[in-house]
Structures are given as structure tokens and as C-alpha cells.
Amino acid sequence: NDFLGSVDYYLEKYNAGSDKPYKVCASRGFYYEVPEAGMTIENCLKISDSRMYNQKQEKRSNMIQRERSMR
User: Fold this and answer.
1) pLDDT (tens digit, 9 = 90+) per residue, 44-54?
2) Cα–Cα distance list, 67 to 16, 48, 70, 71 (Å)
3) Cβ contacts of residue 44 below 8 Å, gap of 6+?
4) Is there a contact between 23 and 6 (Cβ–Cβ < 8 Å)?
5) Best CA proximity match to 48, nearest among 32, 34, 29, 35
6) pTM of the predicted model as reported, rounded to 2 decimal places
7) CA Rg value for the chain
8) Which terminus of the chain is less hemmed in, N or C, by CB atoms within 10 Å?
């Protein structure tokens, strides 16, 4: 997705030029398909939330693996 790629790009660019002792990152979840008949906004939000949670878990797992490899 172009939008998400540009968000990642600008976050990386900011972090590379920042002198902060931390990095800025973002987890996001989205649902961009034509909803099925009878699907409510609540259902769409649940799907988006689930995708964001999965992304957070994946980021956390990758961070732990990087930390272990640095030891």
C-alpha cells in the first residue's frame, strides 16, 4: 500500500535525522475492502483492530530477536 509505505518512509527519515534517544514508530490496522452485506462499522473496526494488534505483536517479536542477536 502506497500510503503505508510513505508513512514508514517518513518515520524512518525522521528517526535517521533525529537526535532523540528513542525512535518514533507506529502500528496501524486498516480494512479497505467492500464490506459484505449486513457488515457493520463495528465489524470493520474489529478487523482493523485485529490487524493492528497482529502488527504490534510482529514488531515486538522482531525487536526481541534483534536484541538477542546483538548479545
Assistant:
1) 889 889 988 98
2) 19, 29, 5, 7
3) 31, 35
4) no
5) 29
6) 0.61
7) 16
8) C
- Give dist(CA 59, CA 11) in Å, integer: 15
27/1 Cα distance (integer angstroms) = 14
d(CA 55, CA 17): 25
Biggest CA pair distance of the chain: 52
d(CA 51, CA 55): 6
Per-residue cell: 4: 503505508
Task: Work out whether the CA dihedral 8, 25, 61, 29 comes out positive or negative.
Answer: negative
